[in-house]
Amino acid sequence: MRRLLIVLMNTDPRNPEELGAPFYHASVAAAMDYPVDVVCTATAGKLLLKGVAEKLRTRPDAPRTVLDWIREAHGHGVKFWACPANLELFGVTKDDLIPECAGVMGAAAMIEQIMEGDGRVLTY
């Protein structure tokens, strides 16, 4: 079965208008019964830290937070992964990650998922 890997690397939490599309696309793909993994790395990795996504909205008057978008995607079966290097970079541990985060996915695991099988990759 085809899989979708979404890599959030260039999406910056300081630009919240960028944050809706990747989570919406993840939700749609999962609702279409595709397995979906989202890896948040670099500055985008902050989105998986407790207290970050819940304070962000894609626009100031948006009724939903970015955490709401993450929870919706998670509810459809999307698996969220933090970059282990980010934990060290940000000086945090797995305990600092939101409950919707399945754990960490390192570079080798991410590249293996990209190169093996019938997967597709979207990057933001």
| Most strands sheet | 5 strands, parallel
SSE string: EHEHEHEHE
Average residue pLDDT: 96
What's the helix count?
Answer: 4
* CATH fold label: Hypothetical Protein Ychn, Chain: A
CATH architecture: 3-Layer(aba) Sandwich
Kindly state the percentage of residues in helix. 25-40%
What share of residues are in beta strands?
15-25%
* Cα radius of gyration in angstroms: 14 Å
| CATH class designation | Alpha Beta
CATH superfamily: DsrEFH-like
Strand order of the largest sheet: 4-3-2-1-5
Using the alpha-carbon principal axes, give the shape: globular
List how many beta strands DSSP finds.
5
Q: Ends: how far apart? A: 23 Å
Structural class: alpha/beta
What's the structural blueprint in terms of helices and strands?
Blueprint: E1 3-8, H1 20-31, E2 36-40, H2 66-75, E3 79-82, H3 84-90, E4 101-104, H4 107-115, E5 119-123
Parallel strand pairs: 1-2, 1-5, 2-3, 3-4
What does this structure look like?
- The protein has a single domain, classed as Hypothetical Protein Ychn, Chain: A, CATH 3.40.1260.
- It is 31% helix and 19% strand.
- The protein has a 5-stranded parallel β-sheet with strand order 4-3-2-1-5, with helices on both faces.
- Helix 1 packs parallel to helix 2.
- The longest helix is centred in the first third of the chain and has 12 residues.
- The model has no long low-confidence stretch (mean pLDDT 96).
Question: What key attributes describe this structure?
Answer:
globular; 124 residues; alpha/beta
